[in-house]
Every structure is written in structure tokens, then in C-alpha cells.
Amino acid sequence: MKFGKQPAPVADINEDNLEVHKPKTEAAGVKAVMVALERAVAQAGVTRTAQSLLRLNQRGGFDCPGCAWPESDKKRKAAEFCENGAKAVAEENTLRTVGAEFWAKHSIAELSTKTEYWLGNQGRLSEPVVIREGETHYSPISWNDAFELIGEHIRASTPDRCVFYTSGRTANETAFLYQLFARALGTNNLPDCSNMCHESSGSALNPTIGIGKGTVSLDDIHDAELIFVVGQNPGTNHPRMLSALKECKDKGGKVVAVNPLPEAGLFNFKDPQTVSGVVGGGTPLADEYLQIKVGGDLALFQALGHLLLEAEKQNPGTVVDHDFIAAQTDGFDAYKDARATLDWDETEKATGLTRAQIETVAGMLIKSKASIFCWALGVTQQPHSVDTIKEMVNVLLLQGNFGKPGAGACPVRGHSNVQGDRTMGIWEKPKEWLLTALDNEFGITSPRHHGYDAVESMEAFERNEVDVFVSMGGNFSLACSDTETLEAGMQRIGLTVHISTKPNRSHVVHGRTSLILPTLGRTDKDDKHPKGAQFLSVEDSMSVVHSTQGRLTPVSEHLLAEPVIVARMAEATFGPDHSVDWRGMAEDYDVIRDHIERVLPGFEDFNARVRTKNGFVLPNPPRDTRSFATDIGRGRFTVSPLEYLTPPPGHLVLQTMRSHDQYNTTFYGLDDRYRGISDGRRVILIHPEDLAKSGFQDRELVDVISTFGGVDRRADKFRLVAYPTAKGCAAAYFPEANALVHKENVARESNTPGFKAMFVRFKPHQGGGHRPLRDHE
């Protein structure tokens, strides 16, 4: 461990340094604490680290810029954060800065050769910069000139040739202003990161239970008798969830883990804030682990529904909640008929599981009187994702697992406030009630036609139908699929505007003219206002809205808050006589919240309630009143055909994944500790039997070919690593493997890219092949 502030790395990733160790079987522990502190101090020094971590996820402090897992409304721990939350804060707190000297030194040609790891670790952006057509370097620009440039380009275009992308980090007030700007302009082109992750959840939940969000509270997680964790790696992506699962286990609950990869966080949690987590063996989490094939979840939940109905036949009135079904649902008879029989040979082929394994977990469901299904991107990024989630809802409805303690649906959101952004109106397919409310409140005429989602935006880039692309945070180039096509399309755009905290790949594959506008982060003090310091609000995965306020001195005097940037873009576009008082909202965020209160249901008395100790919880009919605000006023059983991924002969199913040193497209470091992979990222995890069948050797360099619709995609120079993943399946890191996802490989209905649905084969790398094993096994 090295403690002490460190300069930005000079060297980039050298894949030849790859080391492979035995995967871990436990998560967190003292090691997690030490790594978190080491990374934090290296970026920000001791003082800023202490100032920030003590306020992280605390009342009156700031919300973690990482995942959207909720905090307790009761007593909070002094360290109310996880290892990766501390890393996320360290990235934002860093004292490294990127200013005029950096941009003068590094040309776009040079920066295009750098990885996201190198770019992100250079530090915080410290002043606005611009690059114009024909130029080779970004150079400083004043804020006034930047906004004037944006206004000129937007006015020279038409509304539907402008696209406004949103990252989940954006706070509620910013998101509300941002969507208002787009709709006042006349477009619903509002793609966001939900399009790439949980769009399938909303597409399945809205028609079946009447709300696109989860229906549980944190207390429900603690009080559940049975929790399914499906297609999710909480140890890396939502580590604080492990504490909630531990509390459930301590109360006698059981956990079933469903995942193609045997992730450490699914098995044993060593809570570093308890004695047992420091010196003991920790808490075993998964009572059953189903190592399912990628894409086999639909078949699994159809089988579980079948087995529950069969058990009800054997013991009528003991398994199925008939009173609830009769009073609150529709479509049960058709569902019962569809699940009356099951082809077990086909089910075992689809899932890679045995009938005995599935029957065991069905028995756990039968015994449970309060069950929760949690899921994440392992479920949502398949062609049949929406049907899979609907099938999960069917099983929950079958036992009445809505609106009672310890029961419900729990899509675990992967980015802080990605759910809040959607609540605020960031959506390309807005409902009429929202548009009417906006029009009445602001005196505008919102467009009624749907806009572009993320994949449709990429296709519009390719067709040269976008003049202005504004990115509110995020890294669109690396977040979406079909990387080569996407980046070529981005470079056709007339103006790209990136509202960012740190350099990233999207800044390098920019439009003909490009602006980078540096903004305040979650941890930064926002006090350049007539009425003094301002705060913002966020919504977590369980619909709790609460305040967030940074207290650190920003690393540069040239940073502007996101609401201010949006307001000034709007002023530069519309002029001073617009019906919307943009400046008034930018100066006092209470004014924004007053508008939100009058536009959005559930935000009554917003300014008062958000200032209370725990904030407030938004209405949720399935949870609150056991009712369903669908078009028929009932929960809806659905019937879907059996579907699973069937690769061509000689191919495997490839899924993408994050490393433990990564959050979305941000790389904190190069140590995927729990999987035993370090100092390299271009790897393919492959089962040893599949490796042997392929004719390649462990650690051999290959080029990866994916096929979709008769069209091949290629990504070169990956190293095969023997790993205990599900047979027939393989895994590679996001975003390195994004280039293999054809833009038309998407989930039906939600249009979410098929990051977990690639059919791949391997060829020997043309530049060289085998490398001997290292002595780390």
C-alpha cells in the first residue's frame, strides 16, 4: 500500500503486464478499507479525503456519485460508504487539474491513442476549452464566448437535429431544467444512460404493475424471507447492498444468487465495520447459487412459475394467493394455462441448470411468505429482456408479493440519480400529462412526437442528421454499442458540447467543433449565487428523494454548476425575452423546486420536505396500496414464449462486465481483485472446457469476431483466460468489448443494446500468440 498524494500517471495500460490470480470467494473486509483509503489519499491528499468521506451519504452531506443504493432512514454508520464509493469520491476530489497547458501539450491525434484509464486519471477539468474544424488541439475559451457559440449553432439548426444526452449523475434540479430546455426548443431528443441499462425494466414494469420503478424499501430487503439476486454483481457494482443482505440473513432470510459468473460478492461478505468482518469468517450470503447460462433467466422463471402452480395443485390454498389475484390482477387463467406444462429438456438446455437445482429453489419460494426479486444488467441487456422481467413479475404476482413487508420487485439502479432523471422528465417518449403540465407552467409548446433514444441517436449520427449534440455528463462514445460506427458518427456532428468533470474518450472523438465545459461535482461547494450556497436533490433506487450538498472548495474558480450551465445555454439560445425565467432558476434552486412541485405529482411541498432529515418517499401504488396504475387498473399476468440465446456452431455467448476498479466508463485502477485479474483489461474469461474445445491455450492472444444478422464485428488483441464461468459463455470488460455489439443487437421494446448477447468466435491474433503462464496460480 502506498499512502500519499500522487501525480497523474504518465504510462498507459500495458496489456503485456497482465497478471492472473485465483478468484476470491469473499468480498469487502479490511482489504477494501485499505484500498479505498489508499486511492482517496493518492488523488486528494489526507485533508480533502477526510472532509469528503465523513460527509459521504450522511444527512446534510452529499450523495455518493456512484450507485443509487439507499441509506437507512434510521441510524447511519460513521462510514456510510463502500470501497467503490470512496474511489468515486476520490476521482472527483482529486487535486490533479487539466488546464490550458495540458491541452497545448497533447494533440487530439495523441489523445486518441490513450485509454480511458489514462485520460480519466489526468485530473479535473479546470477551464472551458474549444476545438474548431481543422484544429489539432483544444484551447481555452471564455464562458461567454462558449455560450454564444452554443446559441449560434442551435439557432442555425432545427430542433430535431439537436440531441441532449444525460448521464445518471445529474441531479433532479439540473435534469428538470435540461428537459425543459430541450422541450422549449422543440425536441424530445433526450437519450440518457437508462436507455443502455434499465430501460428494459421500465418497459416490462409499466404495463404489468403500472410503475417503472422498484416496489420495495430498504426495510423490505432486511425483512424478506427470500431474496433472489439475478444478473447482478453487488460486491463490485452495489457493495452497500451486501450490508442489507447480511441484515436479511441475520434475521433468518435466505438468498438465491443467479449469475453466470461466480462473483465473490454473492457468496461471503466480510463487513469491515464489524468484528466478524475483520477477524472472523464473515457472513455467507447465497444459500443457493444457480450458475445460469447467459440469457437463460426467462426459462428459469417460467420453470419456477410452473413448479409453484404444480405445488398449489398438490396443496390447494398454500402457494398461490388467489384472493390477491382475483382482486388485483388480470390474465391469470391464460398464464396458468401457459405454465401448465414444461419441457424440462429444453429448460435445462436453456439454463444450463439441472431440474433438481431449479426444484430446490422453487421449494424455497413455496415456503417463503415474503419474497423479493432483485435484478440488474445481466437481465436487462438481452433481446428478450422485457419478456424475462415480465416473467419475474408473473411469479411475484402469483404469490401476492406486492404491497406487503419484505416483498416486491427491486431493479437495482447502477448510477446515482439515473432514476431521478427519468422522474424529472428525461425521456424521449414523454407522457401527454407531463407535456401539458410543462406547457401550462412555463407558457411553452412542448413537442408531442417522440425523440431519439441512445441507439436511435447513434443511427442519426451515422445518417448525418444531427447538428448539435450536448452531453450532460457521461461518456457517450464508450457507454453505447458499436463503438467504431458511433465514433465515426460523432465526428460528423457540427457541434459537440461536453459538460464534464474530467477528460474522457468522447472529448477526443468530437464533432467538427467541440466544447468541453467544466462543471462542479457532487462534493464541490456551489456558493456563487445571490442567495449564497445552494443544494440539489437526488432520488435513490427505492424512490427516496433527499438533498445533496458539497462542501469542498472547487479546484478551479472557472467551474460552473450544472443548473447554471443549462440556464446560460438556454439564455444564449432564446435571448432575454423568453417566457421561462432561466436566470431566476439558476440563481435560486428553490425556484426550480417550486416549478417541479407544480409540474410533477408526488413533489407537493418539495422545498420543505427535501429539507427534512431523511427527505421523502415518492408515491408507489404497488408498494403503498397494493394497487396497480396500469391501463386496466390491475396487475397484469403476461404470457411469453420460451426464448434463449442459441449461438451458431463454434461460437460462445459473450457478456460484458465491469471490473472491481471501474464504475461505468471510469477506471479507478487496474485491479479486478475479486476475479483475480490485474494490470490488464483486454481479456476474455472462458470456461476451461470451452477453451480446450476452441483449440487455444490459456493466456493466448486472439482476435474476437462477433456475428449478428450475417454481419461480423471485430475487436483485436484480447487474451483468453481460463475461468469458472458458465459453460458455453464468456465474459469481457465493458467498454472494451462494446465494439462487438452490432447497433441492431438490442432488446425488443426497450431498444437497450445487447451487451449480454454477443455470439463470438476467436482467431489467432495476427501480431503474435501464446504467452507462458505466470507463477500466480
Overview of this protein structure:
This protein is of the alpha/beta class. It has three domains: about 95-195 and about 415-620, 3-Layer(aba) Sandwich (Rossmann fold); about 200-410, Dimethylsulfoxide Reductase, domain 2 (3-Layer(aba) Sandwich); about 650-765, Barwin-like endoglucanases. It is about 35% helix and about 15% strand. The chain has 31 helices and 32 strands. The strands form nine sheets. It has a six-stranded mixed β-sheet with strand order 6-5-18-17-16-7. A six-stranded mixed beta barrel has the order 23-31-28-30-29-32. The protein has a five-stranded parallel β-sheet with strand order 12-9-8-14-15, sandwiched between helices. Strand 19 (about 535-540) and strand 20 form a beta hairpin. Helix 8 (about 200-210) crosses helix 19 and helix 22 crosses helix 24. The longest helix is centred in the first third of the chain and has 24 residues, at about 30-55. It is globular, with a radius of gyration of 25 Å. The two termini are about 20 Å apart. The relative contact order is 0.16. GO terms for molecular function: 4 iron, 4 sulfur cluster binding; formate dehydrogenase (NAD+) activity; molybdenum ion binding; molybdopterin cofactor binding. This is Molybdopterin oxidoreductase domain-containing protein. InterPro entries: Asp_de-COase-like_dom_sf, MopB_CT_YdeP, MoPterin_dinucl-bd_dom, Mopterin_OxRdtase, Mopterin_OxRdtse_a_bac, Prok_molybdopt-oxidoreductase, YdeP_MopB. Pfam families: Molybdopterin (PF00384), Molydop_binding (PF01568). Belongs to the prokaryotic molybdopterin-containing oxidoreductase family.
